[in-house]
Design a protein that fits this description.
It is built from 12 helices and 7 strands. It is of the alpha/beta class.
Length: 202
């Protein structure tokens, strides 16, 4: 097996999760009689172009709030979308890793800026591969090709960790080593994966 020379970690579901009060906060964004899950689905659909760097998330969020008769302001809703809790048990593993550790995530620019600046991910990770900056999203092959080119490594030198099997399969199709991991599996499971690839000592 080719030695792994860089690690790629997805963000949501791998190194971070929505804050505990996120769902309750989203529920407050909906007008009377609306299903919060329908609202969430509508926002996720509307933000798709923003994940590629096309369009302004604040604008599409404001339109969605209007469609759902929201009593809250767009500014308040934007704050809800940055309610993120980094997973301390995962970040505790990073000092034991000697190769570059990179963030590989689909994000619109508003949320990405919060992660980079407020959560200080720019100081934590060696490289940030954020979809809105790359102009393409996982699981598109173009996303993984841009990552490979930027790192100037061969695909088989990279290990990609994601909580969605479609992204894992896409990475493998591009020649990367890839494994599925969810925060619910626990940090010890991630350590086992990294140990199997000789990225981290037991």
């Amino acid at each position: 097996m080719t030695a792994i020379t860089a690690l790629l970690l997805d963000a949501d579901g791998v190194v971070q999760s929505p804050s505990k009060g996120w769902l309750a906060a989203v529920t407050e964004l909906c007008g009377p009689g609306f299903d919060p899950q329908q609202f969430i689905d509508a926002v996720f659909t509307a933000e798709q172009p923003c994940l590629r760097g096309n369009g302004d998330f604040a604008t599409v969020l404001a339109r969605t709030l209007e469609a759902f008769d929201s009593p809250r302001s767009p500014a308040a809703a934007l704050e809800v979308w940055t309610q993120i809790d980094p997973a301390p048990e995962i970040f505790a593993l990073l000092p034991d890793i000697t190769i570059p550790v990179c963030l590989a995530t689909n994000q619109q620019s508003h949320r990405a800026q919060h992660m980079v600046a407020t959560l200080e991910y720019a100081a934590i990770f060696d490289h940030l591969f954020i979809s809105c900056e790359l102009g393409c999203v996982k699981p598109e092959p173009a996303y993984f090709r841009k990552v490979i080119d930027h790192l100037d490594k061969t695909a088989d030198e990279l290990l990609f960790i994601d909580d969605h099997q479609t992204n894992v399969d896409a990475a493998r199709a591009c020649g990367l080593n890839a494994e599925r991991f969810e925060l619910a599996n626990g940090a010890e499971r991630l350590r086992e994966i990294l140990h199997d690839y000789q990225v981290i000592d037991r």
